[in-house]
Structures are given as C-alpha cells and as structure tokens.
Amino acid sequence: MATLPPETILSPGSGERRGSAARDPLVAAWTALHGQAAQLALLARIALEPQADENAIAAALDEAKPWQQALVAQGIDDVATMLDTGLKALGTLSRRGQDTAAPALTLWREFHAARTALLGVLGATAAA
Asked: Does any domain span residue 7?
C-alpha cells in the first residue's frame, strides 16, 4: 500500500495536465465514451441514460489535481478500449443472429462500475 500522495508517485510527465487545454480532450473523450455506451444500451435492450453533462465533467476536471487528470485520462482510454472490443464482439453475435442482451448487459455493468470509479477519482457525484 502506498503511503505517499499520488503526486510524488507519478512519473514527471504525468503531472503536466492542467487547465482547459488539457481538459478539452478529456471532455471530448468522455462524451465519445458515452456514445459507445449508448450503442451498448441498445444491444442490452435497456433504456438510454440522459445525455451526459459535459459542463459537469469539465468543471470536475478543472478542479482536479494533475494526478487525478492523468488517472482519469488513462481510465477513459481503458474503458474506451473495453467498450470498443466488447461492441465488436457483440456485433459479431448480432450478425450471427444470436441474442446480445445478456452479454451486452454484463458489459454495461462493467462500464457503469468503471465510470463510477472514474467519477470517484474526480470526487464527482453527478451522473456526468
């Protein structure tokens, strides 16, 4: 278990994120992530969530420390890769005429847990 604050553990280049120049690509990636999640919700046959509030995530990123921004950036990349791979696999099932609801719902739950963790890193409680 680490006893040092994350700022002292991260590599020197990971603390450079700060301000709107670093925030804007993260907000765009967050929005794209929710676009993938909307596709997943359709395959899982669940209701779409309300549109993510870009202003809420932008405000949380503005308040975030550099280590938080770096961790969220990596997390968004990881979740996007997970969703991309999962959506491709679900597309294959769909083309074969197989039901995608159960595996898509499982992937949805993984996405939801990962998104909750990312919001936790930022200290955000809104469903951004």
From this structure: no
